[in-house]
Amino acid sequence: MKRLVICCALMILAATQAQADGPFYSGKTLLHPLVNASPQVEGKLAFLRESGEVIGRYEVKYDAGEHLVKDLDGFDNAHIDAVFYADLTGKGDSTLVMFSEQGQTRVRAYLWDPTSDSLRYMPAAQRLLDSLTLGRGMRTALEIKNAIYELLPFDYSRTYASTDIAAFDQLNHSAGEVVAVFDKEGQALETNASGRHLIKKTFLQRDGRWLTARYVRADEQDYRFVLQQIAWEREPKTLEGLLDGDSVKFVISGSRGLIHERGEYRLGKRVGIWMHAEEDGRFRSRGEYVEGRPEGLWTVQGAEGQYQNGLREGVWRKPMPDGARWEGSYKLNRLEGPARVFNREGQLQLEEHYVAGVKEGLLKRYNDAGKLVLQEEYKANLLHGRQLTYADDGSFIRKDISYREGRKHGPFRSNYSANLPENIGNYRHNELFGRLQQYVAEGYMYSDSNYCQRLQGTYATRYHCGEWTEYRAEGEVRSRVLYVNGDAQVGVYYYEDGTLKEQRKEVDGALEVQTYHPNGQLNCSKQLAPAGFEDVDNKRLAYYNITSDEVGDSRCYYPSGQLQWEMLTENGQRSCRRSFDENGKQTSPGPEGCKKPEVPKRTFYFE
């Protein structure tokens, strides 16, 4: 029977906006009663005759009221016997169409694909469905559904890559005999026991070997099984099986089963040419096994070299996408000595050193002109020592950073040029620590600051401490502030023209903070009580922060000098805030005056 090929283009060929004057099957002869297209979607499936051929067509309805009409498949001149639903994937019922022609029953399965809002033909299920119908005359939908229910719960939505081994590719996974069942730990179970993780089935016997397929649970939440391996085994009832002959392992990637590795075993040992792939199907390695060990020339992740007695030995080379190449030497399967990268012209780009597979000593990187642009020191695979980054022309050190066991620790410096610094400072525990001097490209220092640290185990958090000074281009001070515990204490700030912007100073055991308008007029004045005390350089110093209480009188002024608001302290009590307009008229509070402060209620407990 000729059938329409279900591909993406044909699946949406008839997808059209439904007309408002009636459903797509209106006024047409139905070859089968209307049914739901799928349990997962709202919309009807109809079978119509067009141009002498039976066509399955369905609609997809959306919440917004829109609905599309799509082609399901073509069935030539067949008679549509039934449409029913069965779980072939473990993720919900699929739509099965049973049809007959010349006395022969056939069934096709379609899976709802939410990514395309379409019913997708399931080629992986066809061999199963053919085995239930072909050569058996007419069968009922109930018989087919019951037969599916009795089978191993296999996920028939997956399609598996061809192995190019006829006996493997022609397997009907619904057939065969279950010979062993194992749990996740590899312990044998009864055939229908709960906790099944691995199931082994045999299909053929030849020369004391059985063609065996292994199936594993797709995941912990899915009771369906997927194909893991097809191989010839001499002891299929055991977990290992004593493989002897061709073997192919699969890995599931999306809706496909990709070949993960393929080759040949001889009495449990790998022999001959083997191919391995990544989990996404990309090539990983190819080479020969001798008595179960890699031997001779191999290609591994693009690198080519020799194996001796199962271990990498000697020089290995790897071409890179941009025409460059990598080369390094192995000893007992581990990198040993220098490893280098050359560009397409053969110019050295990178040189690093290994001891027993561990990066040790100097790493050097060069640009295409042959100039050294990076030099690093390593110990036990970690940066340890100086990391020097050079200018592109190699004329000066752009950055000089010290490391200890992979973390920044010690002095560092960055430069604009050979004689013009950018930053000079220190790291400790991967964070700035101590004095930090910062310069602009014009050559003057714009910041001279200090950092302290709080340690939690081996991790540090930094905070402002000590004196911080910022400068303008002329070398004049923009600000000079003393920090304690990350908070500004005493200090001064200036506007760009040099006029005073803010002044913070200690007066009679409190911090007096005064800010100024650009015209020099006092803006605001307040006093803060200490938040606590800190020992700094063997001195007991008060410190102030956001939790400090305001004490004394607080006032703010307009740029004209007119009082804007004030809050006074009388007998240790803060008065309410009085506000004034620019003409000196009081705007709050009103005639009622200030409310008396409420005395907080206290609760007394008695025993």
From TrEMBL:
The keyword Signal applies. InterPro entries: MORN_2. Residues 577-599 are annotated as: Disordered. This is Toxin-antitoxin system YwqK family antitoxin. Residues 1-20 form the signal peptide. Gene3D superfamilies: 3.90.930.1, Histone H3 K4-specific methyltransferase SET7/9 N-terminal domain. Keywords: Signal. The keyword Signal applies. It comes from Aquipseudomonas campi.
